[in-house]
Amino acid sequence: MKKILITGALGQIGSELTSHLRNIYGVNNVVASSKTRNEESRIVEEGPFEIVDVLKVEDIAETVKKYDIDSIIHLAALLSAVGEGNPALAWKVNVDGLFNVLEVARETKCAVFTPSSIAAFGPSTPPDKTPQDTLQRPTTMYGVTKVSGELLCDYYFKKFGVDTRGVRYPGLISYETLPGGGTTDYAVHIYYDAIQKGKFTCYLKEGTAMDMMYMPDALDAIVQLMEADPNKLVHRNAFNITAMSFTPEKIFAEIKKHLPEFSMDYHVDPIRQEIADSWPNSLDDSVAREEWGWNPKYDLSSMTVDMLAKLREKLC
Ligand code: NAD
Ligand code: AKB
């Protein structure tokens, strides 16, 4: 990667990825973009920023041409809970938006990274140690768009030689930008509420296990995969990756070790509970480990120490 365009750069991942990539590749070699400008965002101030609505193919094409982009990190999307609220828009942004990015990449010979998700699996998928290649019949519109995206990326590689790569992220936990309306968001909000209120109401019920990852590992995955030797990649797109799997009571117990007064109760949201129940409990990420050396640094315990320290700095 030499000249990088990030779409959806003001979201949970993009807002941290932009600075991370600017540190590695140089500020002027990483162009952040989003549908609208947020003057308060550090990302807009820090380096090149363009308005790119991924539903407008000309926005993408003009920006790629203007900056001589060779790699597109495509993050613009609607997440699971928001997507269930507006399935038509979720399809448009997640599938038509990706299609536009792939078309521009085909014409300009750009490489493309785009994340899939644990949402690409469904209730008929083996839920424990979910294999890399297995049944995928998701029951959410978000999941349908993610499977479609995985297939589109495979197609553009096989048919047109576009260098497409991607991972299936689990729920991502971070302290810089709040998550954009997913089912795993509780695992971020619990840290904020632990520090700010000393109590948390969880919208998922006890025993709901899902894969999760701390943001520094999620950012490393992008760089590692995009820089990986293409000859070693058998799968290319949609690699299962994970760093930990936990339930609400397990993350609560981990935070309570540091904040003994912290308490949690439950008020289950049936929509997000149904989504969470349809996703795996834990992924098998051995293929990513074998093909490009995936090896996360953070587990629940070390993530919790860092999250609480960073949020105390930010909020207190
Ligand atoms: P986010 O919701 O925080 O950010 C997405 C950004 O896309 C938002 O800033 C939004 O304004 C922008 N956007 C929406 N429509 C757009 C359009 N038409 N044109 C341009 N920008 C538009 O999402 P995120 O958490 O940063 O996720 C990025 C990617 O990673 C998505 O593909 C998501 O499915 C995937 N992913 C995220 C997680 C997670 O836990 N955050 C987990 C699995 C996969
Ligand atoms: C969501 O919950 O929608 C995302 C995801 C796992 O894709 N965090």
Automatic annotation (TrEMBL):
It comes from Anaerosolibacter carboniphilus. This is Nucleoside-diphosphate-sugar epimerase. It comes from the Bacteria. Residues 4-241 form the NAD-dependent epimerase/dehydratase domain. CDD domains: TDH_SDR_e (cd05272). GO terms for molecular function: L-threonine 3-dehydrogenase activity. GO terms for biological process: L-threonine catabolic process. Belongs to the NAD(P)-dependent epimerase/dehydratase family.
